[in-house]
Amino acid sequence: MHEKGRTKYPSEYDDTIYWERVKRNLGWLGDTDEEARKRQLMLRDSVVGVAGSGGIGGSMVERLARLGVLNLRVADMDTFEYSNINRQLGAGVRTIGRNKAEVVAEYVHEMTPDVAIEVFPEGITDESAAEFVEGCDYILDEIEPYEFKARYALHRAFRASSSVQFMITGYVFGNRTFLWKWTRDSMPVEEFTGLPEDAEMNAETAEHLMSRLIPETPGYPGPEMQRRWLIDEQTCPIVPGAPPMSQGLLLDRLMLAITGIEDLADSVRLPVAPGYAMVDARTWTAKIVEAG
């Protein structure tokens, strides 16, 4: 179905197939079969929006579908290029030049036709943000790091929404991933970022932005190489192993929150922004920094 230039994939739901394909989830969702199925229904009936379908966001659409979430939205205005092939779901020589969100949605719906997916190929803008957010229960903010104006539009729509419970962001830098959780009571992203919306993207702006998005700079490579990529070229270099680490953490945190498991036993909640969680695969470091 096409509307406003968007594609809507309807759910082709089969209850028998659904429970067969998610049955291995159930071993970790409760102490009884009844409890586990109840929590799986929470996942099934949630509406999750994924803003940005690049290295992390695109694969999150797939992972959410595999988890059994049946209502997804995906937004991205960007198209695939050759440098995306090293890490992004849907990127290949035959999809170069195609819209990322459309390719990801097409792939995921073919894999799991019971998942309803709405595609926003115009990405997140002042005009599309409210419609993208409307009716969502949770949002994954995976907009490109330098696209702060689109991020501001998304967060404004989130704060005005009555349905979205929270948003999560995951970014990777080298072998390190940072996760942030946004609520209506947490620090607004505009304050967190500290950039006026009319700021021009230049070296000074990029340096300020990276100082907020990388609260703990990786120790390798050295600062000159990091600066050349992140500030001078305004490009985030990414190795293929880094995004899956962030994707797994994001999916687990969202699953634990939706099902309420994050409030049980020895679970630890993800702090709200400007607090964050950090995992570094090179130094075997994991930590939580509470908002201060």
Tell me what the structure shows.
- With 292 residues, the protein is an alpha/beta fold.
- The protein has a single domain, classed as NAD(P)-binding Rossmann-like Domain (Rossmann fold, 3-Layer(aba) Sandwich), CATH 3.40.50.
- The chain has ten helices and ten strands.
- Strands 1-2-5-4-3-6-7-8-9-10 form a ten-stranded mixed β-sheet, sandwiched between helices.
- Helix 3 packs across helix 10 and helix 8 crosses helix 9.
- The longest helix has 18 residues.
- The radius of gyration is 19 Å and the shape is globular.
- The termini are far apart.
Pick out its properties.
292 residues; alpha/beta; Rossmann fold; ten-stranded mixed beta sheet; 10 helices; 10 strands; 17% strand; globular
